[in-house]
Design brief:
Number of strands: 7
CATH topology: Nucleoside Triphosphate Pyrophosphohydrolase
Helix content: 10-25%
CATH class: Alpha Beta
Radius of gyration: 14 Å
Strand content: 35-45%
Number of domains: 1
Length: 137
C-alpha cells in the first residue's frame, strides 16, 4: 500500500572545515531530539532548497555556507508525516569560524572520525554519510 502521509520538504547541510571535520548539531526537537545530525530543516514556502540550506545552517550554527551540490535524499518518518530531506554538500564561507548552537540546535560542533564515533547519531545519518563518501577525516 502506498504511503498516504503528507511529505514535508527539508534540507540538510553536509559541511567540512579546512581540517576535514564534519559539522554536526545536537537536535533540540523531534524528530530525533537529543541526537546528533547534520544541520537542516524545513524548506519554507517559495524558498529554493539551496536558499533553505543556507538559512537553516545559519540559524542552527551561525555559519554562512555555500551550497555546492546535492548528495542525496533520505526519508524520515515523523508524527503523521514523512520528512523528505535533500542533503547538500556545502562549503563554509571564510575559515577558522566555529559553530554556535542556535534555533533548533542544542549544540553544534565540528567532529573528526573519532569524535563522530563517540556521538549518538540520529537514525540513518551514518549510513547516508558513508554511502555518499563524506565521512570526516
Amino acid at each position: 500500500m502506498d504511503d498516504l502521509r503528507p511529505e514535508v520538504a527539508c534540507v540538510g547541510a553536509v559541511v567540512h572545515d579546512e581540517r576535514g571535520r564534519l559539522l554536526l548539531i545536537r537536535r533540540g526537537h523531534d524528530p530525533s531530539a537529543g541526537l546528533w545530525s547534520v544541520p537542516g530543516g524545513r524548506v519554507e514556502r517559495g524558498e529554493s532548497e539551496a536558499d533553505a540550506v543556507v538559512r537553516e545552517t545559519a540559524e542552527e550554527t551561525g555559519l554562512a555556507v555555500h551550497p555546492v551540490r546535492v548528495l542525496g535524499r533520505v526519508r524520515i518518518d515523523g508524527d503523521g508525516v514523512v520528512f523528505t530531506v535533500t542533503d547538500w554538500l556545502c562549503t563554509v564561507a571564510g575559515s577558522g569560524r566555529q559553530p554556535v548552537a542556535g534555533d533548533d540546535a542544542d549544540d553544534a560542533t565540528f567532529v573528526d572520525a573519532a569524535g563522530l564515533a563517540a556521538l549518538e547519531l540520529a537514525p540513518g545519518v551514518l549510513t547516508a554519510l558513508s554511502g555518499w563518501g563524506v565521512l570526516p577525516s
